[in-house]
Amino acid sequence: MRIKQFEAPTVQKAVEKVRAEMGPEAIILSTQKKELPRGNAVIVMAAVDRDLVEQRNRPPIEEKRKISPGEANRTDFLEEGKMDWEMDRTESALLLLKKMVDEALGRRHHGKVGDSPYEWWLERLVESGIEDAIAWALIRKLSSKTGRIETISSLKGKIEGVLERMVKVTGEIFQKGDVPRFVTFLGPPGVGKTTTLAKLAARWKDEVKRPIVLLSTDVYRIGAMDQLHIYGSLMGLPVEAIYSKKDLYRVCSSYPENTIFMVDTTGRSHRDDQGLMEIKILLDPMLDKMWSFLLLDAGRKKEDLLDDVDGFSLFPVRSLIWTKMDETRFPGEVVNVFLHTKIPISYITTGQNVPGDMEVAHPKRLREIILTDKESRRFLWIKRQDFAYPVNA
Hints:
Helix content is 39%, strand content 17%. The protein is α/β, with parallel strands linked by helices.
């Protein structure tokens, strides 16, 4: 990594000097004003990786290398006002990106570069759980577009805006049109499917003017049906057990055509191919009239979460519900998973209370959770039951 300081009358002229000497790959680390006898000047600290420069100057290799699946999920930014995410061209570029992030964070911790606002925000994003390459790409794009001296405060609004555009949400699904006849809750064991179903049933009971019936295919786990029966009794909603397709047809024919059936499924690991196929066979008659939620535990790491998404790809997952958001140290995993899967988010859960402790996913709220430092994040849940942001995204 080569680091050099440049001096010029304005930021624009300083950046021109950086690009002329270090090339388009140079990263602006910090800018500051300086008073000189001959007038004010701007000091810009810039860096470039020598390996990247050598790679750019190397003759092109004619043979095309096969792109690995991991690379296909990496990201880059497009023009301001719109974003897309594209795979990087070479594995070496990904390794370089990781190296630059590690070095930038190392310099920040050892105080070797000063208080660059870009590095301050880079550290904050990585600490929140956002993948190194994604965080670096975000900061790199913002630093390349600035035309003035930035501070931590001035960058905050720009980073908030980018984060709000990075994740797609569905809004309250019954406000987007007619709710499908079957609303199914899928996910691994312990993710909170039964509790989340009860929260959503309580939320919809007074909002959706249709009968609601709670169904359970989780009939063999000890206590599973008892828990659902307790919730159903408290809300005044019928509960039915489904052991087979025959039971499903029998139950469905017993209720009016406009009934919403909320289906609690058995928790299965993404590695349990047989168990997942059993659920798939049982749900097959519902598929054309079903909204499937996949529930993900916000406390797990990206690799495990992506394995969960891949394992449940047997089902037509419409959107995600993130559970245990109040327990995680790494809410940025929400960003990582969306950019790898493109599956929108409908709700987040933030506690065990039923009803309550459930919010419609909204970009502003997700951004607030991600950017709040871990010590202060606990205070975010005070307003979880009467969250005031708009429900329609």
